[in-house]
Amino acid sequence: MHGYLSNGSKSECVACGGCAQNCPCSAISMTIDEYGFVYPRVDKDKCISCNKCINVCMFEGQIQKQYEPLFSYGGYCIDKGIREKSTSGGAFSAICKAYAMKRDCVFFGSTSDRLKIYHTYVENINNINIFNSSKYGQSEIGESYKQVKVFLDKKKYVVFSGTPCQIAGLIKFLGKTDTSRLLTVEVLCTGIPSALFMKKYEEWCNIKYGSSIKSFNYRFTNKNKWDDQPTLVELETGKRIITARWFSNFYSIFLQRLMSRPSCNKCQFVTKKRTADITLSDLWGLDKEYPDLYDDGSGSSWIICNSEKGIETFEKARNYMIGHEVEYDRMRKYQRPGLIEKTVHPSYDIFMEDLKNMNYPELCKKWAKKPTLKLLFQKYVYNNRMRVRIWKLKQYIKH
């Protein structure tokens, strides 16, 4: 089989799990390697060489990238409750509501339990809040692709959300299945960090605080503004650790692209052509391009419709949102890791060896960077909110 299963190459496998789900004799399992990344492993005693794993591997043949952006929109949910629970503008909730109108619909997305992130589904629109908040880790697909196929065969409508590679894996897995009732929603991805880093962080928490981690919120909203969301760690003892993003060891190392999955370093989805019906992201850069969409700083979403199905659904979703059309090319430049390029740190290989051999304090001391005075000035003084206030003042003077 192509990729890691046969020749040990890890740079192409995204661990979508399609091969494991399509194996008729359960010969493939998704296992974690020494660097904290998940890969398929074949039990040769069970394998019957049927090649069904190859048939659904997205890298066997051309990846299906059939759409280019047809419509670009920026905005946020009218419902303040949804917006407060979301990490950006709550667009996913609006899209699900629109697609589920008078339909028997099932919703797939990722949720978390402690440090574990996994895909699951709900059949009640009122329960989609379990998919709220951003998770900077690899979601275990489990049997989600198989479950989607079962629901589609039963003529149910399905919304499936995930990273671009997870969407591509699903499309390849479904093959000739009738997907007319399927709506795919991808979330632009910066890359998948190693789970080993978080494991080492929890080990450090056990030593320092005498407690394991109950939950890890990568972007804690609460009363924080959307563009300044800290991390929130809740320990089993009840202790809460809130760290500003600019002082977070996790973000410092992650954003340097030191611990991304090998396949993320040569991501094939950093392109204008998309596989999903709808692409979602934070509307970064709105303070410079569309300050009217900043509102009170609670978060705004960028919605890109790539197919007619996506446009049709979002036209209904707009009833739940405040916003307007935004120029795709103006906003794309603020999404460099998701739509333009993913750079690799020149010391990537050295860091990965350190990740394997060092403990958490040693890793942070060597690799995490303290924020510069320039960065702190940009984030806490002349920041997005200040630029929007100046814009509002100019508008007031003008009128």
Description:
- There is one protein chain.
- The chain contains 17 helices and 13 strands.
- It is of the alpha+beta class and 399 residues long.
- It folds into 2 domains: 4-56, 2-Layer Sandwich (Alpha-Beta Plaits); 63-371, no CATH class.
- The protein has an 8-stranded mixed sheet, sandwiched between helices. Strands 8-9-10 form a 3-stranded antiparallel sheet. A two-stranded antiparallel ribbon has the order 1-2.
- The model has no long low-confidence stretch (mean pLDDT 92).
List keywords for this structure.
single chain; 399 residues; alpha+beta; Alpha-Beta Plaits; eight-stranded mixed beta sheet; three-stranded antiparallel beta sheet; 17 helices; 34% helix; globular
Brief description of this entry?
The chain has 399 residues and is of the alpha+beta class.
Element-level helix/strand string? HHEEHEHHEEHEHEHEEEHEHEHEHHHHHH
**Whole-number average pLDDT?**
92
Write down the Rg: 21 Å
- Alpha-carbon distance between the termini? 66 Å
Tell me the fraction of residues in β-strands, as a range. Answer: 15-25%
The major sheet is characterized as: 8 strands, mixed
Spans of 5+ residues with little confidence (pLDDT < 50)? none
Number of DSSP-assigned strands: 13
